[in-house]
Amino acid sequence: MTAKTRIIQVGSYAGSPTANDRLARAYDIVELWKYPDRKAALAEHGKGITALVTSANYGCSAEIINALPDLKAICSWGVGYETLDIKAAHARGIQVSNTPDVLTDCVADLAWGLMLAGARRIAQGDRFVRAGSWGQVHGGIPLGTRVSGKKLGIVGLGRIGEAIAKRGIGFDMDVRYHSRRQRNDVSYGYEASLVDLAKWADFLVVATVGGPGTFHLVNKEVLEALGPTGTVINIARGPVIDEAALVECLESGKLGNAALDVFEQEPKVPDALKANEKAVLLPHIGSATLETRKAMEDLMVENLESFLKTGKVITPVEG
Ligand code: 8YV
């Protein structure tokens, strides 16, 4: 029997029911999260290790990369990679893979769930019924806002942004977007200024990448431009929105509603948001369906296997 290949696993795949067992069956895993002193663990077990698996939330820092002299591939579970030090990896010729495409539809669906939940007060209505507050009169919570036929602004027209735009057309919405560059392969209206997009839009969906380049891109000025009848939806990364400004705008009535799957300091959610009926709050579940989590796991493992067999990952992160 040949010995199993030793790989490093940065964190436990709690959000992917079979990934830990599947990896453990096929590989000799160094379970990095179990060591209180990661540096010492890497020094003791890292030599000769060529592949590492991680996720969008655990990331892979330059500290880990530098502690692994033989590392050649980092295979991550998740599409976002702002937590992985791509520069440090590429400087050493280390390939990095993520899991694009397989989660696009489910994340776009959740953006829709949030949009409808915020506008039509679905979460608030559910709380109202559970609290036993519903009397005989129809309704009993404040009126919501129509979604169909409204103006949908999308921040970042990548794979997920485009899937959200497509769904907007199904809701007879007028769709425009803002991104660094205008795309010439789509017919949606382009706004070079995010403030102008927010002024125009009824619903502003944040679908851009995270990281320093988009930190607080949606600031007070953008939220105020969206205005008292506007709703901001975020399925991207928490830090893209200035959360303090968001709380202030919701409380002062300068912004209508917020529907959020991501937060600046997950899993911490500001009490002011929890207390606000105009906010819908979810625990980062954009990709959290059985089908998508399985597909993410498969693609992460396929990248790893491909690297070990052919020396090349399948879905490399460029850049
Ligand atoms: C994960 C994600 O749900 O793919 C990503 O970048 O953010 C999500 O798919 C997340 O990493 C879990 O916390």
Automatic annotation (TrEMBL):
The segment(s) forming the D-isomer specific 2-hydroxyacid dehydrogenase NAD-binding domain are 113-286
Domain D-isomer specific 2-hydroxyacid dehydrogenase catalytic, chain residue ranges per copy: 26-317
Q: Please give the superkingdom of this protein's source.
A: Bacteria
Which GO cellular component terms are attached? cytosol
Q: What is this protein called?
A: Hydroxyacid dehydrogenase
Q: A Pfam family in this protein?
A: 2-Hacid_dh_C
| Keywords, sorted A to Z | NAD, NADP, Oxidoreductase
The GO molecular function terms of this record are:
glyoxylate reductase (NADPH) activity; hydroxypyruvate reductase [NAD(P)H] activity; NAD binding
